Structure formats: structure tokens, C-alpha cells
Amino acid sequence: MLPAVFVSRTDVEGDIWKQDVTFERGGLYLIEAASGTGKSSLCSYILGHRSDYEGTLLFDGRDTRTLKTAEWVKLRRHSISLLFQELRLFPELTAYENVAIKNNLTKHKSREQILHWFDELGIADKMGVKAGRMSYGQQQRVALMRALVQPFDFLFADEPVSHLDDENSRIMGRILMEEARAQGAGVIVTSIGRHIDLAYDKIYRL
Amino acid sequence: MNLVWKLLRQHISIGQLGGFFMANLFGMLIVLIGFQFYQDVIPLFTQNDGFIRQDFIIISKKVNTTGLLGGGSVRVFTPEEMDELRSQPFCKEVGAFTGSLYKVAAGMGIEDVASFTTEMFFESVPDRYIDVETDKWRYAPGDRLIPIILPRSYLTLYNFGFAQSRSLPQLSEGVIGLINMNIYIRGNGRQDLYEGRVVGFSNRLNTILVPESFMKWSNGQYAPALPAVPARLIVEVDNPADDRIARFMQERGYETEDNKLDAGRMTYFLKVISGIVMTVGLTICLLSFYILMLSIFLLVQKNTKKLQNLLLIGYSPLQVSLPYQLLTVGMNLLVLLLSFGMLCIVRSWYMATLTALFPKIGDNGTGLSFCIGLLLFAAVSIVNMYAVHRKVINIWRNKL
Questions:
Q1: Pick from B77, B134, B110: which is nearest to B182 by CA?
Q2: Using an 8 Å Cβ cutoff, are B211 and B127 in contact?
Q3: According to the 3-state scheme, what is the secondary structure of B285-324?
Q4: Which residue among A70, A88, A105 places its CB closest to the CB of B312?
Q5: Cβ contacts of residue A42 below 8 Å, gap of 6+?
Q6: Within an 8 Å CB–CB cutoff, is residue A130 touching chain B?
């Protein structure tokens, strides 16, 4: 597959664009990319947010271009979770509400579990604070929790730790992998430099 | 849902929605009142024997000086003229007034000694034009009793003109119905005595009426040689306000009785005015609807990012549209209920006056107005819901 804007370019190389790539459940992948190589585009394609690409994107053997609205909704609730690079939190809602608004939809985690994560990630005292008033690093942790309150086959973490210190990214990586393993899900992490230190099965260069 | 609403109510402008609410309320109210008033008042014009019966016109030929000089022959309608009238597009049916071709005298007396008698005449029209509800309007050949209908104006003339000046008792319709008159009919070399009884009073027909069956029979009995030719016609029309009627009558030199055409025009004006009022109301409704759409679109525009994020974390377009759809439908519903309540208040106020003026007025109720309101509500709500849905789908498709 290839983003439509890259079609006229001749210098496209790397392990993803114009290649056949398969991500499998249970796998742990890292995509390293330089800025402007289409990393966020890839995430948008996978979530069905955009479809301005050439080639095909198959999910479970099904061409995702043929998916209907309701099927995408189901997919976003039960199969694919995305930790957005730009986080996409709601600044008007508190940190807890930002997680709850997703959990209300999936009923996947108990309130206790979410509170426990807040505690582990060191932002328990920020639960009632509006997301817009939190630091970017704190928001990243809230976004992680929101990505985890749903069942998933694949978790895409788009630069999850860009604003976190080593200690916090270690905790984050642990929680993330615990959840993924419990569900037998595949994890795809992207990074343009800093990345969570994990035992990746395969590293792609974009 | 609460969290979603907490998010999506951001940027809701109370001013804009308030403006819509008031405008829509007034628009709806004007439409409903216009319609309801029309519904309430129109029976006065169209009811049988009502204030004004609109679709009958009685015509005759102009009586002029030359007619008088020419020997005084009665100006009658020929069969050709009646056919021509029948063929006019405004005409539904034509009935003829048939006159008595024999001599009639009526008298009131005791034991057959006539105390006073008066020469008179009878006319008849087909029974369907009779505007008096009675089961006594029957005659079988040979009956001694002749039912008679008098113009209501005769009773008025007697009660308030004659009786008052002569210190005679005023008579009610009921009392007159109890009096038997002696009717003397002469013709064809015979003279017979009949009994006449007034069975009703007509507003429409300005003549002394007997049943058509009696007229046919008696003309055959007492004046078999003379042909019955009508001097007056009763014309049933679709719409008396039709200007073709006035033009036709003018061209042929026919006269209409009782300002019936004016009454028709009043109905027409009532229709026009109700139409204008309802159009104004509808226009206000449309404009308010436009405000609402603009307001909602602005809201969706301002909240595009939130909507998009909700969709991306797994909310369906339906779930995301719902709060705005409920908001608009809820407001529309509130407008409907409020305007209906206000309609009832306004109506009770003017109906009190109307009922006092016209006790016979029927009450059609407000059901039809409610249906119209409901219809407006449904139409506006469906368009609202669809528009919001379209906007959200566009966000889903990333077409911002």
C-alpha cells in the first residue's frame, strides 16, 4: 500500500510502503520512522479514518474498503485500539471522564481497574482535573488508559512515550503489554526516536 | 450518554436557540390560529340555513320600463336559456321556480265563514333547494293539507312592523305552525277548499313555497292548458365568488337576489385572509426553521473535532447525532405543545364571542388544527434529524 500523495514520488523505500506487510495477533512490532514518512497516515488508514491510499488493506482477509459504517464502528470498539499521537482527548472533560467516555461504550473495565491504573501511572491526584489543564505527558498516560478500556486484537500506539521519562515509559510499557498479552493481541508501536523498551518481534523502518 | 451530552452541549448558543424557539412558536401559533379561526367561522357561511348559504343564487330577469310598456308580460326563462346556464362551468345545477297558474286565496275564519281573505300565489322549487329541516314537507295528490314555507322576512315584517303598529300580538314561529289557514283554489271551472299550514321559514327562498309535488298536481288540475314557465331560477354554483358568474349575469341582464354574490365574496375574502395569515405563519415557521438549521450547523461546525474524536474512539454516527436530534425534536415538540395550548386559550376567548353572536354555530373542535400542527412538527423534525445526520456522516467520511 502507498499513500496517494506519495504515488508520484520515486524515492519511496522502507519496509512498509509498496511492500506486503502482515501483522499478527500476539506479535509485538516497532515501526521506526522519520518525520513526514507517513506514519500517522498509516494509523489513519488502519482505523478507517482515511482511505486516500493505493493498494489494499486487509483485516482478517477482508478488504477494509468494503467495510460499512456499522462494521467500522464495531471494529473500533472491539478489534482495533489506537493510541493517537495527537491524543484526541476531550479538554473539557476530566482525566477520569476521558477514560470513562470510552469505557461507557465498551463496559470493558471496572472503575476500580481504571483507578488502579491512575495510581500506577502516578496521576491519581489528577483524576478530577480537566484534561486541557494537564501536561502533555500526563495526557499521554490518560490516552493510554482510554486505549486500553476496550477489547482489541491489535493495539496501535503512535509515539506513545514522546513526552514521558524513562520510569513512566517503563510503567506504561508494562501495563500495555499486560493488557495485550491478556487478550492475546498484537501490538504495533511507532516511534521517531524514543520508544518503549520492549522485546520487539520485528522492527520495521518506514 | 451523559458524558457525550456534556461534550456536545459545548458552544450551544442559548440566544440562537431562544430566537428559534420564539420565532417558531409565533409562526406555529399564527398558522394554527389562522387555520382554526377559518375552521370555526366558515360554517357560518356554508352551513345549511346558516348565517349565509353560499352556493345558491336566485336569479330573475330585470324588470324594466320597456317590459311594462310592452304589455306587462312576465319575463320568463326559456328552456334554451336554462340549458345555456346549465352549461356554464360555474354551474352545478339549475332549479326552476314554478308558479301557480290558477287563482289562490287564503283566509282565516271560524266555521268556514271567512273573516278575511287575501289573494295570493304559490311557488315551488325542487325539494333539494329547501333550506328548512322538516318532515312535514310532503304532499300526496288529493291531500287536503298543504304544507307551506314562508320567507322568514315575512314574519319579521309582521312582528316588528304590522303587529307593533296595530297593537297585535307578536307571533313566534311555533305559534304560526299551529294556525290553519283556509286555502281557496279556483281554476279550470272549479273551486276547492284546502287547509294550509306553515311548516317553516326560509332564509334563502323569498317566496310562498309549496311542495313541488303539490304544484305539479294542482297546475294539472286547475290549469291544464297553461304551460308552466319559470320566471325565477335557483342556481347551485361551485363558488359564488367566481367572477365569471357576475360577468355572465351582467351580460345576460339577469338579476341576483339577496346579495348572494356579496356573501360569496365575503367567504372568498375570509379564505384569502386566512390564506394570507397562514402563509405569514408558515413563512415565519420556515425562517425560524432556517435559524435553527444555521444554529445547529454552527454548533456542529464548532464541535467538529469533538464529534470526530467520538467517532474515532468507537461511537457510531447515530449515537453522535442523537443528542442534537433530540435537542431539536425536543424543542419542536415543546413549540407544538405550547402553541397548541395558546391556541386553545385564544380560541376559547373568541369562541365565547362567536357563540354569543351565532348560537347555532357548530363546534368542529381543534382536532384538525392539532393534525396540522403535528404535521408541521413531523416535517420540521424529520428535516432537522436528517440534516444533523448528514453533517455527522460528512464528518465520518472526513469531508469537513
A1: B110
A2: yes
A3: HHHHHHHHHHHHHHHHHHCHHHHHHHHHCCCCHHHHHHHH
A4: A88
A5: A16, A31, A190, A206
A6: no
Q: Which of B1, B309, B317 sits opposite A90 (nearest CB)?
A: B309
Q: Please list every residue in chain A whose beta carbon sits closer than 8 Å to the beta carbon of residue B313.
A: 76, 88, 101-102, 105, 146
pTM beyond 0.80: the answer is no
Q: What share of chain A is helix, strand, coil (3-state, %, to 5)?
A: 40, 15, 45
Cα distance between residue A165 and residue A159, in whole Å: 13
Distance CA A98, CA A96 (A): 5
Q: How many CB atoms lie within 10 A of CB A113?
A: 14
Cβ neighbors of B194 (< 8 A, separation 6 or more) are B144, B145, B146, B182, B183, B184, B185
Contact yes or no for B6 and A104 at CB 8 A: no
Mean pLDDT along residues A119-123: 93
Verify whether the Cβ–Cβ distance B312 to A77 is below 8 Å. no
Asked if A101's CB is within 8 angstroms of B314's CB, the reply is: no
Alpha-carbon distance of A181 to A109, in angstroms, equals 16
- CB–CB contacts below 8 A, A to B: 50
* Interface predicted TM-score of the whole assembly (ipTM), two decimals: 0.93
Measured between CA atoms, how close is A116 to chain B, in angstroms? 21
pLDDT of B1 strictly over 70: no
Convert the pLDDT of each residue in A9-51 to its tens digit: 877 888 888 889 999 999 999 999 888 888 888 888 999 988 8
Q: Show me where the domains of chain B are located.
A: 2-48+265-396, 56-260
Interface check for A92 against chain B (CB to CB < 8 A): the answer is yes
Round to whole Å and give the CA distance between B161 and B151. 15
CB-nearest partner of B314 from A92, A93, A102: A102
Chain A neighbours among B 309-338 (CB < 8 Å)?
Answer: 309-310, 312-317
Instruction: Give the domains, in start order, of chain A with CATH numbers.
Output: 2-11+25-200 (3.40.50.300)
Put simply, whether A105 touches B (Cβ < 8 Å) is yes
Q: Is the dihedral of CA A89, A94, A100, A101 positive or negative?
A: negative
Task: Tell me how far apart the alpha carbons of residues B153 and B150 are, in angstroms, rounded to a whole number.
Answer: 8
